[in-house]
Amino acid sequence: MKRRKVCILHVGGTIAMVWSEQGYVPRAGYVEEYLRAMEELSRPDLPDWELVRLDPLKDSADFTPEDWVRIARAVRDRADDYDGFVILHGTDTMAYTASALSYLLVGIQKPIILTGAQLPLSEVRSDGREHLITSLILAGTVHVPEVCIYFGARLLRGNRAQKVHNASFIAFDSGNYPPLATVGVNIAVRNRLIRTPKERPVGLTNLERRPEVVAMQVFPGMTERGLRRVLEEPVEGVVLETYGAGTFPASNKRLIRAIEEAIQRGVVIVNCSQCHSGQVQQELYGTGAALARAGVVSGHDMTPEAALTKLYCLLASGATPEETRRRMVEDIAGEITLEQTVPAPPL
Ligand code: ASP
Fold it and tell me: How far is 304 from 298, CA to CA, in rounded Å?
């Protein structure tokens, strides 16, 4: 049987960093050298692999939507040449890139696995080594036609994942969707959780514009002045990170008025919860229902990362505010659960 072939796309992150006077910084060439010295990477029980470095290597804190597009293009251009992709990426914004790629690469029905490390390969206790080897195995052998994150012995759907720890080796979690696979002595893949590709997928491939999209966390004592500043032109999309089941300080009518006015101007505002698990139910409390009445779109159980990148990609692909509002609550790449929940108390 022909050995499968995986492309390792190296875009930066801690995994490739070395210590310097400015703290950890990426060093071009380090990963190449390291991989050459890893004898297990040439064993026949691993897929064949090739490394492609996308310069400049960056700390993912510096990533912008241009980088999502740059990575998506690199995958798309090589999609026919490989059975899967492993993307070496920083952990800080990995959940954003994974979400964006899930929309930009709909239709590429191959494993696209982002991974990285909490400790660089240049450190003796690096977690990057196992992440790299297991990601290669997963990308080369398992049928997961999705954008995923492999980290801390779990394969997570990329647009469901969030970075939840900045020091533990279990840095990611997906509070609203179970892991697609868990990795111990055996690799246990939960096939029923893996997305079955749609026949006619509707992805977002053409990002023609660079819309201004922002995220804003609701907090006790937020002022009308602060809120209006965030909603000012040229903002086109806002992820409003609310409390609990989607609540907001709605008894301050000036805040609601500011939101209504922005929506009337065409700003798309999406309600996502600050909670890591559970879903937004705007109608459950009066303090959330006021947002629904003002025209805020429910983000259901999407993570703020998945919602922000979706909003960005939709607006950037030229969707009108109306289309954007509609598509925000469509399932594009498994980022949202559309099943109905029975409200408590029943309506
Ligand atoms: N600051 C690093 C980055 O996101 C952190 C990491 O990779 O773990 O690139």
Answer: 12
